[in-house]
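**User:** My hope is that you can spare some time for a protein that puzzles me. I have put the entry right below:
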Amino acid sequence: MSIPTAAAEAIAPLSPEYADVLARIVAELDSDRRIAALWLGGSLGRGVADAGSDLDLIVTVADQEADEIVAAGASIWAFLEPVITLEMRGLQASFAMVTRDGLRVDVVLEWELEVVDTPYRHRVPVFDRRRRPTPVPSAQDVQRSPNVATMEAIATEFARQLAIFPDAVVARGDWLLGQEAVHNYHTFLYQLYVEANQPLPPMGVKQWSAKLTAAQRDQLAALPPPAAKEASVVDAMRRVSEVLQTEGRALVEQAGGEWPEAAVAAGLARWRARGLD
């Protein structure tokens, strides 16, 4: 069985080796009548794949064969000779694999009867031999606004860690922990940016920078990564904290959220107690 043009075009942004892997998978599954359909999913299905994307597959199994496929588990994919096979949490017989060549193949299993209301609506068919092929639901993306509760939770966690830093890091002189604390604060700022930018177009989890505006990327890039030394850690923490208290606060409030003023003030009080103001 040859790979359809649409599927070949979808994987074209990936390294050329992935075409060979997909061809092997198609050749193997073509003779397995328990497999009703094979699709490209993830960023491939959404049409936004790039050189860093995985080979994301959706495997539709005939309902009457599903139990057998689930029982077989990862052995179905032994022909790929993966060096890593991790079962995806909460998804039966679905695996994240890495081949001997370091290629990443993710497989999600679905029953034929699940197609009618599948959450995996962005997909490109490789083959489809279902006897009663119900259509895949529309892939029209649900547009959402920034989640205010999420942004408030990020701000509250920032305030909580603001109070921890003077004692757990500075008082102990644990500058390796301090490096991680600064990294956490960079993550808080990134998360606020991403939530404030909703709705975003469909894109993969690992398409990190694409979720930000140019100004946001520049702001994060300008924040210093600290060395594991007192002056470096304290300076880096002070700088990212200031951005969170100004720009981060503005993002929360613009979304209609409430900035945790009292909690931030309590954290800053611990900073003053340690002579960090």
About this structure: Residues 148-273 form one domain. Residues 230-254 form the longest helix (25 residues).
